[in-house]
Amino acid sequence: MSLFVIAYYTLLLGASCLAAYFNKRSAFLLLFSLTLVSFVLGIIGGVSALRIVAILAGLLALSAMVSYAFREFLIAIASRNLAKELRTAPLTAAFGMFVIFTVAVAGIFAPLIAPHGEAEVITSAFAPADANMLLGADQLGRDIFSRLVYGARNTVALALAGTVMAFLLGALAGLMAATSGGWFDQFLARTSDVIMSIPSLIFALLMLSIFGGDLANDTTSFWLLSAFTGITGLLLVSAIAERSLMAWVIGLAVLVGVAAMFGGFMLTIFNPSEIILILVVAVIYSPRVFRLTRAVAGNVVVMDYIEAAKLRGERKWYLIRREILPNSTAPLIAEFGLEFCFVFLLIAGLSFLGLGIQPPTADWGSMVRENATLISFGDITPLIPAAAIALLTVAVNFVVDWMLYRSSGLKV
Amino acid sequence: MGDILGLVVKRLGLGLIILLVISVIIFFMVELLPGDIAQAVLGQGATPENLAALRKEMGLDQPALVRYLHWLAGAVTLDFGNSIVTGASVAETIGERFANTLFLAAYAAAIAVPISIVLGVLVALLRNSIFDRVANVATLTSISSPEFFLGYILILYLAVKTGMFPAIASLSNDMSFGDLLYRTFLPALTLVLVVTAHMMRMTRAAIINLLASPYIEMARLKGAPPWKVIVKHALPNAWAPIINVVALNLAYLITGVVLVEVVFVYPGIGQALVDAVSKRDFPVVQACCLIFAATFILLNLAADVGSILTNPRLRHPK
After folding, report:
1. Chain B residues touching residue A368 (CB < 8 angstroms)
2. Which residues belong to any copy of the ABC transmembrane type-1 domain (chain A) (predicted)?
């Protein structure tokens, strides 16, 4: 019996007695079941197992404190209405917001935060951590901490771009399908059925095998991207212009310009293979967004106030913008968060397989792969970027969970 | 029973049509390549003679539709042509690997299904308690973690630090069944962790949905003991959602297996697919994609058919 074990059990039992005394039923149940589990764990795993439990509990308490403080901070700086909403946020959601905030800061100010460059070789391969490098060096002698910070920028930006494109196409198509109905609706629904019946990772691999090699050049990616933007824009134009020929002409002219400019703009940010990746992701996930939007909008379309607006002679675009969208924002925002998680995990998985973001760009998924050999020496370095992926996804999920809970539907 | 048979046949027909459409997508996507496969294989510096020879060998001089029908007829009889890179028969290369993958998925499912259903029902009964909330956070975390994260954690703690299980799942033909289970334990466990979380959440949602229905309340009000409410009233109606959950997650297993196989260097079809994609070995990619898609659709069909068959309203038509 070491001092640690004695202190461990004293603390746990004391805390559970206190909880019981003050009638905190759920806290007591949690603490006391932890004590019982610890008995078993202590017998099987010895002191080290208890130590791990203690460290985990400490981490949990720390993150709970951070999230509590962060929530209070947000409430303090938010406007009154927003503060009222924020007060209902559980600690998990506050924790999620804190992580998202941290990653956003790291990504936006990456060059200022990272002590070394993204692809800068500063020392020998797999050099251990020292005062200069917080987390040591990777397989080429680049600083892992700096690459993590840059990874926050590259991986998240890519996933965000993919999600936004998938979301725009899916949501627009879903809204149009719900308001138009008929063969257009049927056609889109059957197409999305087919795409969704191919497992997403497999479909991504299939598309990457085709667009991966020579096709990942400036011209191809520009045309593909412009085509994708064009299809999205076409839905928008058709919603706004409806039967007016003049509006169609103007809309199409504007659309061609916007698509070309957008293609050129994206090419200055991402390299061609990354644009292909964004498009692959957008194609795979837009059917899912489409399904949800169509279902949500479909519920709104049958309402009386839509009927009234139609009788008033309102146009389709007005219906979408002023009647349907405001009544389906909450599930759509939650869906955006969920889609982001899927996209992020897919991109991380592809990069881990060596088929996503290409070196030397720093990226969390490929960092795991590059340093994976260290695992067999009992080094946790490769786990850090993987943990970052998990942490961000969990964070987004926590926030989404809270939003879904608030926005009805899933109040189980 | 005629009604049910009709529904099932209709579902099967729909699945077959979707599979056909997917085979069209998989085949004609490769046609999108500039030039053709021969060009892609030989690269920019190929001489016209070489190209023509390869085209002739691969049958590329025929129109695409003829080649598609030929490919489809081959695929139905499990003949996927030859690999571009090694020249070996695709069916032979992936056949054994597919069996390995199925074994891994079945292994994981055999552990995950009972655990997650029992836990899911328990959590549903204890809903809104502290355990429910802990389980919610735990399953959410597990779902959000990429498979390779869980895999490497297991390797680090169960293989490298304690040496309880082998980190690399290498297989050989003369292994006993017990040895096989032992060697593939870590990849199976990784899959179990991911799938259990999914299944638990879905089972919980399904059961809670069920417990909110009026006839359950009625059973409670008339004074039936809680276990009887669950076993006699809730369970018969819970089979449909539970079968759905299981089949959907088995489908998920089949694709989740790709990353896990790469982490544990497991000789399965997922790794074959990843290798083929990076080498741009199109026949192998096509074959693997078709197999994965077919399995996925088959399991989704099983979910549909299962929920039709267990639906008491359909089983006893008025």
Report:
1. 148-149, 152
2. 152-404
Instruction: With CA atoms as reference, report the closest residue to A178 among A307, A293, A313.
Output: A293
B157 to chain A, any CB pair closer than 8 A? The answer is no
User: Does A336 touch chain B if contact means CB atoms closer than 8 Å?
Assistant: no
Annotation: CATH topology of A145-408: MetI-like fold (1.10.3720)
| Chain centroid, CA A62 distance in Å | 24
The pLDDT tens digits of the residues spanning A140-191 come to 778 888 888 998 888 899 999 999 999 999 999 999 898 887 888 889 888 8
Residues of B in contact with A397 (CB under 8 A): 140, 143-144
User: Which chain A residues touch B160 with a CB distance below 8 Å?
Assistant: 375-378
The answer to whether A376 contacts B209, with C-beta atoms less than 8 Å apart, is no
Pairwise CA distance, residues B252 & B143, whole Å:
12
Q: Which of B22, B209, B278 sits opposite A198 (nearest CB)?
A: B22
User: Taking residues A191-218, what's their average pLDDT?
Assistant: 84
Asked if the C-beta of A353 comes within 8 angstroms of chain B's C-beta atoms, the answer is yes
| Chain A touched by B123 (CB under 8 Å) | no
Which of B26, B148, B263 is the best mutation test for A, with the most CBs of A within 10 A?
B148
- B18/A197 CB distance under 8 A: yes
Query: Confidence class of residue A40 from pLDDT cuts 50, 70 and 90?
Result: confident
Q: What is the ipTM of this complex?
A: 0.86
Determine the CATH number of domain B95-315.
Answer: 1.10.3720.10
Domain boundaries, chain B: 1-77, 95-315
Q: How far is A235 from chain B (nearest CA, A)?
A: 24
Q: What phi and psi, each to the nearest 5 degrees, are found at residue B89?
A: -65, 130
pLDDT at A1: 61
Residue A412, pLDDT > 60, answer no
Burial class for A205, CB neighbours closer than 10 Å (0-12, 13-18, 19+): buried
User: Mean pLDDT across the stretch B10-33?
Assistant: 86
pLDDT (average), residues A78-90: 84
Cα B146 to Cα B190: distance, rounded to the nearest angstrom:
10
Q: Residue B318: what pLDDT?
A: 52
* pLDDT, tens digit, 9 for 90 and up, residues A360-371: 888 898 888 888
Check whether A279 has a pLDDT greater than 70.
yes
Among candidates B33, B129, B258 on the partner chain, residue whose Cβ is nearest the Cβ of A210: B33
Which of B14, B83, B123, B130 is the best mutation test for A, with the most CBs of A within 10 A?
A: B130
Alpha-carbon span A310 to A314, nearest angstrom: 5
Phi-psi region of B43 (alpha: psi -120 to 50; beta: other; left: phi over 0): left
Q: How far is A369 from chain B (nearest CA, A)?
A: 9
3-class SS shares of chain B: helix, strand, coil, % to 5: 80, 0, 20
Closest partner residue to B156 among A349, A355, A383, by Cβ? A383
Question: Using a CB-CB distance cutoff of 8 angstroms, which residues of chain A are in contact with residue B278?
Answer: 354-355
CB count in 10 Å sphere of residue B226:
10
Q: Tell me if B34 and A215 make a contact (CB, 8 A cut-off).
A: yes
> Of A315, A327, A331, A354, which Cα lies nearest the Cα of A405?
A331
Q: Coil, strand or helix: which one is A121?
A: strand
Other beta carbons less than 10 A from residue A333's beta carbon: 15
Whether B98 and chain A come into contact, CB under 8 Å, resolves to: no
Establish whether the linkage from the previous residue to A360 is cis, with ω within 30° of 0: yes
Cβ-Cβ contacts under 8 Å for A57 (sequence gap 6 or more): A34
pLDDT (0 to 100) of residue B314: 65
Half-sphere exposure of A36 (CA within 13 A, CB side): 6
What is the Cα B207 distance to its own chain's centre? 24
